[in-house]
From TrEMBL:
It comes from Algimonas ampicilliniresistens. This is Oxidoreductase. InterPro entries: DPD_II, FAD/NAD-bd_sf, FAD/NAD-binding_dom, GltD-like, Helical_ferredxn. Residues 1-20 are annotated as: Disordered. Keywords: 4Fe-4S, Iron, Iron-sulfur, Metal-binding, Oxidoreductase.
Length: 475
């Protein structure tokens, strides 16, 4: 192993080739190329095979990263994929969209020693893309069919991960979603240049071929009641995500031209999928995006591709305190996005009722707030204006009113569903919740983790019901 591994001392870190910024500004294709097998082996061999693998420790899914890096370096690609697949329902998706610089790669020991992290995400993507190409990934085939059924509300990453895990155990699974396509934010929230939609579609097709039923264009609580679902299914998982935009609390926030980030991204993705969407685009406009997370980066980079005249990102803290991926920020800067760090909007100014510019204060960082970060405070007399025909608020997401789903479900003071932190069960027997609706707005990889964990406890619950039914039948 020593001959194949620990090559970081002689082999430089090398990402898959990235398309030139001037070329990629004009389309929505993914910006990174593919690793060829030899390059994946080379980069995997840089792993130091730590006794305590911090990369694995900082992965929400606890993926066995050193193991599949070693197998990749040894040319045992199928075995490497099998280990990657064992702990993750969507490795190729996580390889594309996870902020590895904040998770596994950011915790890599050789990164800390100055040699440059192992390209974990790119190898992860390579393994499962290879598995699809080679036909190693097959439809779900449960060892036995079980009679009880599960209803899952939400076809996003948490719901899909749970659906797969429960179907593997033989339970009858039906997934309900308000949209016309399964995938949740994987389909409608994340732009194509990070995740092309056929990557998601082949996953949901595999689930369907494995016996999972999808009921789309179905808004639970409106088109069918929550109570009806409980009558129909022996267990329920609520995995609706959080879609309500945090509001922009400044004068002029309701001016024509101010849009929530998710509305902007959903419309853009629907156009990419061939739908006829009539809402305005960023073409020819001065666009200002307010926020500093990954959603803000998705918005600024989408605006560039729609042909915006200018794109500016306003963020109230500095670059070092930005919550979004550094990699995505760098990509946006390469594509021509202008960043105004330490800038906070104070008003949206209009001309004739339509947005014309954003007025903002220059900020400085003061004492730490309860989150542990330095709190931004305005610098007196340091205001400035940014031209803005379109203003996109990307300030994060909140849960929708769970009373619209069921008034019997208990919520936290943040509006998320209250669950048992171990079992993910709500206050209603047999009703579970996972992902952003119980955790709060977070990462796709955390949604997958919680979907898997909730499914494990739902399986135990259904087994208990099954045993009771068998005992009654025997009597």
């Amino acid at each position: 192993m020593a001959e194949r591994m620990l090559q970081f001392v002689s082999t430089e870190r090398d990402m898959p080739e990235k398309r030139d910024a001037t070329d990629r500004r004009d389309d929505f294709l993914e910006i990174y190329g593919e690793f060829i097998d030899a390059k994946a082996k080379e980069q995997a061999s840089r792993c130091s095979q730590c006794g305590v693998p911090f990369c694995q420790d900082h992965c929400p899914l606890q993926n066995n990263i050193p193991d599949w890096l070693r197998l990749t370096a040894e040319g045992r690609t199928r075995e490497a994929w099998e280990i990657s697949d064992a702990t993750n329902n969507m490795p190729e998706i996580c390889g594309r969209i996870c902020p590895q610089d904040r998770l596994c790669e950011g915790s890599c020991v050789i990164e800390q020693s100055g040699h440059g992290t192992v390209t974990i995400g790119a190898v992860e993507k390579h393994l499962t893309d290879t598995a699809w190409a080679e036909g190693w990934i097959e439809p779900i085939k449960p060892r036995r069919e079980r009679g009880a059924s599960v209803g899952i509300i939400g076809a996003g990453p948490a719901g899909l991960a749970a659906a797969e895990q429960l179907r593997l155990q033989g339970w009858q699974v039906t997934v309900y979603d308000r949209h016309d396509r399964a995938g949740g934010l994987l389909i409608y929230g994340i732009p194509n240049f990070k995740l092309e939609k056929e990557i998601v579609a082949r996953r949901t097709k595999r689930l369907e071929e494995g016996g999972i039923k999808f009921v789309l264009n179905c808004n639970v609580g409106t088109d069918i009641s929550f109570e009806k679902l409980r009558e129909k299914h022996q267990a329920i998982l609520v995995a609706t995500g959080v879609y309500k935009a945090r509001d922009l609390a400044v004068p002029g926030a309701d001016t024509d031209g101010v849009r929530p980030a998710l509305d902007f991204l959903i419309d853009s993705n629907k156009r990419g999928l061939g739908d006829d969407i009539q809402s305005e685009t960023a073409e020819g406009k001065n666009v200002v995006v307010i926020g500093g997370g990954d959603t803000a980066m998705d918005c600024v980079r989408t605006a560039v591709r729609q042909g915006a005249k200018s794109v500016t990102c306003l963020y109230r803290r500095d670059h070092a305190n930005m919550p979004g991926s550094r990699r995505e920020t760098a990509n946006a800067q390469e594509e021509g996005v202008h960043f105004e760090w330490l800038a906070s909007p104070t008003a949206v100014m209009d001309t004739g009722g339509s947005a014309a510019h954003v007025r903002a204060d220059r900020m400085r960082l003061g004492p730490k707030d309860p989150s542990g970060r330095q709190a931004p405070e305005a610098i007196p007399g340091a205001g400035f204006d940014v031209p803005a025909d379109m203003v996109i608020k990307a300030l994060g997401f909140l849960p929708e009113d769970m009373g619209d789903l069921s008034k019997d479900l208990t919520v936290t003071r943040w509006g998320t569903l209250r669950v048992n932190p171990v079992t993910f069960e709500t206050n209603l027997p047999g009703v579970y919740a996972a992902g952003d609706i119980s955790r709060g707005a977070s990462l796709v990889v955390w949604a997958i983790r919680e979907g898997r964990d909730a499914a494990e406890h739902m399986h135990k619950y259904l087994r208990t019901l099954e045993a009771v039914d068998q005992k009654v039948a025997a009597e």
